[in-house]
């Protein structure tokens, strides 16, 4: 099952939040969605599930345009953690409502997921702490048995054990190839190991798609020290400077080929050291110009 | 297959029960009123007591020299005395629906309850996020709207018939039929009227709730609309009868009189129009607009015109001394000014923009 | 997996190295059954595709073998082929060059080598 979004554009108020967003995502994949605060991650998810009507563009699941065939949207689920209508409902009633809305909902699984975490069906959602609310949302998502699941900041405010549990659950679902996840998160460390691909949302569009394992194969983050205080041309030409402290330059070289290595060594560095390359580095390089430098 | 009606019913379970309780409450109110009437009838003076007191009365009037009054007093028989004091309905002129004396014609409480519930359902679903849940289920929005209507309207319509219906049954079981004084068409007129007004009130309230996204503005506006519409209708019927002579006299919601058919037609138009608009709005309003002042910006001028018309009708056209031409002109001009200010004047648009919490 | 020496490597490479180390240290012996891709992924909190890639590389290098229907097992560790040794040599030489450039003496290098080979012997 594959979801494709093309030319998605959405203006909210006076701001063009989404502008020609294009991407695809299918079952068996964990795709990360990152961006700065207010970049439009939540707007994108709300547009995919037709809470917001896109100004332009289409979303299709298995080539079925969702505006023409609304039923195809039943393959997609998004529970917006900030806009819940069910704060005053008990977990039991919540399960019943979702079971009515999603025919494949597995009530037994929902209940056992709640029971595993000592949640009682008679509790009201709004009375739970933030972490447990996130768990309930996760339980609803998993029990729904819907192929394509959107998660919005699922790790936000969760303790280590609940977080690991959720990661395990996501891995479990994806391993069969029957489910796909699109995870919007600020937790870059978590996405690093979990996501197959990461979409970078910048200025309303997907500015970059990164397959992390491939990037680590071909790119390198280096710490360099040169004799002179100036930054050599080779560094600026082949790399993206992430940080400069005194004489120590931290830069990202993508791709890091033998030619690039040669060019750098030609500048006679005092020190070249390879540093771990993480999603945070890629994030920093992508949004570099949006940050004030000292 | 997803059963949209069942979802709505599960979600609004409490509201539906509330409606039934409201109907029950109005039934209790009318029941208690009837009990008083019945008690009054049961303890009415007997024929001989009446005749005795009548004779006393006539003698008194003759002594005072008022011979005409004495003659009138002597004329009223016991039967007509009973009828004029205790009958439940009476027929006035050409009115299709009988006027209530001690009986029930218009269940105004339940009509207002239906109106309130209509507003509440739209507000809860739109502002509370339930509509967002429904939007993601993969059901066409048009079908969702009609599922909601098909959950509430049958219950509301049914209850609007049940209360007067049950009262009528109560009357016929306990009261002498000639004193109930109701024809078959009269009965039908009462039931149809209640049904039409209650259903229209719900749909109208619901569409209003869809149109206005700020809860406070909605609450105040919806409340103010009640006296404005009631009073406006009275003035409208007076104007209509003055201008067209198709009506002899004005009417109101509670006492439509000869305006009965006009009101029924009006209900048809309003409920049809509001339902059509409601379906359109539900389909086309994107949820980020749901908490703005006016969820459909291109309805701004129609709204201004509508409110101006209503205010003109209330304060402009008919006054203490009958039709008044000058205030009739002032109000539309005021409305035009407000509309233009809303559209163009930066200070006003800035305020409304702040009221537009678009998310 | 969190070994600081492996921080520059891709996740799948880390997993490959970790399993290889476990074999060298004797934590996993030939014939031991490896967790399924899914279970390994859950244990190390990684994307199953990452784990699958690691398993594939291990299989290509002969460290593990997949027996259809029965699972994945640590293979008999035959003597490394000359080919394998040739593959590793350039990386070794590069590391030595860097160490020399950093001023590491031959004695220090030897000490480091001894430490590596002693690691599994406890």
Ordered list of secondary-structure elements with their pairings:
The complex is a heterotrimer of chains A (294), B (359) and C (122).
Chain A: E1 2-12, E2 15-26, E3 30-35, H1 41-48, E4 56-61, E5 64-65, E6 76-78, H2 91-101, H3 107-116, H4 130-143, E7 148-152, H5 160-175, E8 180-184, H6 188-194, E9 197-202, E10 205-211, H7 212-218, E11 220-225, H8 233-238, E12 239-245, E13 248-253, H9 258-266, E14 271-275, H10 279-286
Chain B: H1 4-11, H2 13-42, H3 47-64, H4 67-75, H5 78-86, E1 89-90, E2 99-100, H6 108-128, H7 130-135, H8 141-174, H9 177-180, H10 184-211, H11 215-244, H12 260-284, H13 300-317, E3 318-319, E4 322-323, H14 325-344, H15 346-355
Antiparallel strand pairs in B: 1-2, 3-4
Helix pairs in contact in B: 1-8, 2-6, 2-8, 3-4, 6-10, 6-11, 8-10, 8-12, 10-12, 11-13, 13-14, 14-15
Chain C: H1 11-25, E1 33-34, H2 37-44, H3 48-60, E2 64-67, E3 71-74, H4 82-101, H5 106-118
Antiparallel strand pairs in C: 1-3, 2-3
Question: What would you note in describing this structure?
Answer:
The complex is a heterotrimer of chains A (294), B (359) and C (122). By secondary structure, chain A is of the alpha/beta class. Helices cover 33% and strands 30% of the residues of chain A. Chain A has helices at residues 41-48, 91-101, 107-116, 130-143, 160-175, 188-194, 212-218, 233-238, 258-266, 279-286, and strands spanning 2-12, 15-26, 30-35, 56-61, 64-65, 76-78, 148-152, 180-184, 197-202, 205-211, 220-225, 239-245, 248-253, 271-275. In chain A, helix 3 (107-116) packs antiparallel against helix 4 (130-143) and helix 4 (130-143) packs parallel to helix 5. The longest helix of chain A has 16 residues, at 160-175. The termini of chain A are far apart. Chain B has 359 residues and is mainly α. Chain B has two domains: 4-43 and 87-292, no CATH class; 45-85, no CATH class. In chain B, the strands form two sheets. A two-stranded antiparallel ribbon of chain B has the order 1-2. A two-stranded antiparallel sheet of chain B has the order 3-4. Chain B is globular and about 80 Å long. Chain C has 122 residues and is mostly helical. Chain C has two domains: 11-74, Arc Repressor Mutant, subunit A (Orthogonal Bundle); 82-121. Chain C has five helices and three strands, in the order αβααββαα. Chain C has helices spanning 11-25, 37-44, 48-60, 82-101, 106-118, and strands spanning 33-34, 64-67, 71-74. Chain C has a three-stranded antiparallel sheet. The longest helix of chain C has 20 residues, at 82-101. Chain C is elongated. In chain C, 17% of the residues are buried. The mean pLDDT of chain C is 82. Chain A: Keywords: ATP-binding, Nucleotide-binding. Chain A: Pfam families: ABC_tran (PF00005). Chain A: This is ATP-binding cassette domain-containing protein.
């Amino acid at each position: 099952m594959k979801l494709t979004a093309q030319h998605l554009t959405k203006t909210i108020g006076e701001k063009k939040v989404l502008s020609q967003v294009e991407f695809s995502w299918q079952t068996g994949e964990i795709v990360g969605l990152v961006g700065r605060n207010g970049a439009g991650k939540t707007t994108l998810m709300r547009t995919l599930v037709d809470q917001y009507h896109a100004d332009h563009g289409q979303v299709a699941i298995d080539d079925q345009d969702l505006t023409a065939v609304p039923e195809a949207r039943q393959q997609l689920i998004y529970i917006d953690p900030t806009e819940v209508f069910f704060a005053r409902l008990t977990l039991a009633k919540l399960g019943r409502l979702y079971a009515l809305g999603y025919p494949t909902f597995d009530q037994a699984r929902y209940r056992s997921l709640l029971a595993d975490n000592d949640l009682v069906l008679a509790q009201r959602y709004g009375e739970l702490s933030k972490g447990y609310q996130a768990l309930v949302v996760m339980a609803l998502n998993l029990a729904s048995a819907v192929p394509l699941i959107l998660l919005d900041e699922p790790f936000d405010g969760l303790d280590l054990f609940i977080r690991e549990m959720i990661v395990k659950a996501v891995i479990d679902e994806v391993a069969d190839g029957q489910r796909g996840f699109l995870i919007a998160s600020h937790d870059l460390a978590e996405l690093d190991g979990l996501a197959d691909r990461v979409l970078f949302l910048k200025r309303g569009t997907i500015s970059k798609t990164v397959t992390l394992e491939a990037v680590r194969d071909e790119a390198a983050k280096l710490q360099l020290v040169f004799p002179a205080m100036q930054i050599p041309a080779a560094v600026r030409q082949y790399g993206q400077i992430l940080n400069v402290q005194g004489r120590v330059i931290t830069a990202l070289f993508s791709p890091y080929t033998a030619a690039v290595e040669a060019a750098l060594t030609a500048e006679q560095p005092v020190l070249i050291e390879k540093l771990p390359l993480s999603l945070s580095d890629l994030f920093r390089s992508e949004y570099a110009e949006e940050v004030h430098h000292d | 297959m997803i059963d949209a009606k069942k979802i709505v019913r599960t979600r609004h379970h409490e509201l539906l029960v509330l409606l039934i309780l409201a109907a029950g409450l109005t039934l209790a109110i009318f029941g208690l009123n009837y009990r008083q009437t019945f008690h009054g009838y049961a303890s009415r003076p007997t024929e001989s007591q009446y005749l005795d007191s009548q004779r006393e009365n006539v003698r008194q009037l003759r002594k005072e020299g008022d011979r005409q009054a004495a003659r009138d007093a002597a004329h009223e028989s016991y039967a007509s005395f009973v009828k004029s004091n205790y009958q439940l309905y009476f027929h006035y002129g050409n009115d299709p629906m009988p006027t209530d004396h001690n009986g029930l014609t218009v269940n105004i409480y339940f009509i207002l309850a239906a109106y309130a519930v209509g507003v509440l359902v739209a507000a809860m679903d739109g502002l509370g996020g339930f509509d967002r849940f429904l939007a993601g289920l993969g059901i066409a929005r048009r079908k969702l709207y009609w599922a909601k209507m098909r959950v509430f309207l049958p219950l509301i319509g049914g209850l609007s018939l049940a209360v007067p219906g049950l009262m009528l049954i109560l009357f016929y079981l306990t009261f002498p039929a000639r004193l109930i004084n109701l024809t078959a068409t009269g009965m039908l007129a009462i039931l149809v009227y209640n049904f039409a007004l209650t259903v229209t009130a719900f749909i109208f309230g619901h569409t209003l709730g869809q149109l206005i996204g700020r809860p406070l503005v909605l609450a105040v506006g919806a409340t103010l609309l009640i006296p404005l519409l009631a009073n406006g209708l009275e003035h409208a019927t007076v104007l209509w009868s003055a201008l067209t002579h198709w009506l002899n006299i004005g009417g109101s919601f509670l006492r439509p009189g000869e305006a009965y058919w006009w009101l029924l037609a009006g209900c048809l138009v309003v409920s049809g129009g509001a339902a059509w608009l409601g379906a359109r709005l539900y389909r086309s309003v994107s949820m980020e607009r749901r908490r703005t002042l006016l969820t459909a910006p291109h309805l701004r001028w129609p709204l201004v015109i509508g409110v101006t018309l209503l205010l003109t009708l209330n304060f402009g056209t008919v006054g203490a001394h009958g039709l008044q031409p000058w205030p009739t002109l002032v109000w539309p001009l005021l409305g035009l000014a407000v509309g233009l200010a809303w559209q163009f004047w930066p200070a006003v648009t800035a305020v409304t923009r702040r009221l537009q919490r678009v998310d | 997996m969190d070994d600081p020496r492996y921080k520059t490597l891709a996740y799948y490479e880390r997993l490959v190295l970790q399993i290889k180390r476990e074999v060298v240290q004797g934590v996993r012996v030939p014939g031991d059954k490896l967790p399924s891709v899914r279970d390994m992924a859950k244990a190390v909190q990684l994307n199953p595709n990452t784990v699958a890639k690691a398993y594939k590389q291990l299989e290509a290098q002969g460290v593990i073998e997949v027996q259809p229907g029965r699972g994945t097992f640590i293979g008999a560790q035959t003597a490394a082929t000359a080919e394998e040794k040739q593959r590793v040599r350039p990386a070794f030489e590069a590391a030595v060059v860097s160490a020399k450039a950093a001023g590491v003496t031959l004695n220090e290098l030897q000490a480091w080598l001894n430490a590596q080979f002693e690691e599994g012997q406890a």
